Amino acid sequence: MSADCIFCKIANGEIPAKTIYEDADFRVILDIAPGTPGHALILPKSHGEDLFSLDDAVLQKVFPLAKRVAKAIMKATGAKGCNIVQNNGEVAGQTVHHFHVHIIPRFGTEGNIVSWNPSGYADGEMEVLQEKMVKELHG
Question: Which of 20, 29, 85, 125 can bridge 102 by disulfide, Cβ–Cβ 3.0-4.6 Å?
């Protein structure tokens, strides 16, 4: 736990929140500034600034929990789908530097909550990036 991290304080019960699930590793709360009604955040109780600094043992539990929570949220809200979003770094939209996962129910009426403008690659650029990434992943 980080003494000055607001999500650590919420995850560990020092600051009240609308909790919908809790276990030894996580607290899941309703977001106070939701994209849609039912928008929830999965907060690990252990501190890691982002995906790259969170313990792998905790990370292994995140998506099974996200699946369980998302199904419950969709059933409870009547949502037709959901976004499961996790941002790393300010340029990626991370505003609180404590790893967390957003579960945003989608109803088909809210417009784009998560979107980007598709671009493309110059000739040969995709292959060059592919080769660099394969080298990084496989040495």
Answer: 85
Q: Can you give the pTM of this predicted structure?
A: 0.90
pLDDT digits (tens, 9 = 90+) for 24-56: 999 999 999 999 999 999 999 999 999 999 999
Q: Report CA dihedral (89, 105, 55, 47) to the nearest 10 degrees.
A: 70
Residue owning tokens 């989608």? 106
Q: In angstroms, rounded to a whole number, what is the distance separating the alpha carbons of residues 114 and 93?
A: 11
Q: pLDDT grade, residue 60 (50/70/90)? A: very high
Catalytic residue numbers? Answer: 100
Contact 87, 116 (CB under 8 A): no
